[in-house]
Fold:
Amino acid sequence: MFQPVTFTPPSSVDSIAAGLSSSLDAIGSTLASGAGRLSSLGGASSTPAPGLNGLNGMGDMGDMRGQASGMFAEPVPYLAVTPYQRGVGQHRGEHAYLTPTGAIRAVGTRLGDMPPLTTGGLPDMDTGLVLVVMAAPDAGRFATSLQRFNAVMPLVELQQAQRRAGALATLEEDKFKVPPAPGYPAWGKASPRRGATGRATDVALGAQLALGEGHEAATASPLERLQGFATRQAATMQRRRADLASLGSSMTGTDPGWFGIYLEGLVAEVARLLVRFVPPLDDAFKCCAAVCWYGRRQQVAYYKEAFGLRNPLEGIDL
Structure:
């Protein structure tokens, strides 16, 4: 029932961006055509520019905003389990160990303590769980696995576990290392704004620059203002699209010790199912961490798609 985990750009985000594409293109063409009509004020038309009516984005903008808000605006409860937490795993001296089975069992136990999400006083059936497990045979590879995960989706608990595992991996070597002493006199950083005179000079000069910029903007013709606005808006849209594309391309990475599962149902039902499934890695992978997100399906949809998971029980009667 568990599936390999690979970071994947969420398809819901791509669909929203595709729906907005035609609207953003129409905005750019409307600004350009508006600048052209302004040059001949007598021929200006009050008819909306073609492309802004009947678009996917304009008619369904509220739906797409609601979909995006459900994925990103509402916080979703999550639980992170690592070997270095008190009461979790087995501790031997400086080291601590947690098997995949133990990590999944710890998540299932804590799920039983979680109050169910309710809607109008009734249990909400529209809930889902995303569980990701990262396992490694030793502390060194465990730190590397956590580093790969935190590079894309950092969590405080996993970052702490990464530093702890990295330190334990080199503990015996570090005992024989002498740290280098800093050089003196040491270099520092100074800024003119930290002093009273420099700060006052910056304020006085900034006020004069603001007056000059305001005068320059006031002397520009309406056509120049609209053309400048259109240029800035087009550049802004290009930057926003490039930012989203860059974020999507950065969601890459996997590890042989990563596996996960997506389940739907109430807390008690999901906790019961978790302990029934056998993890794909055995107890030889004794350094393990698990992260679980539980909430309404729309809330956990981003994590489900980001890890490339699907519901393994869909269409199966248990």
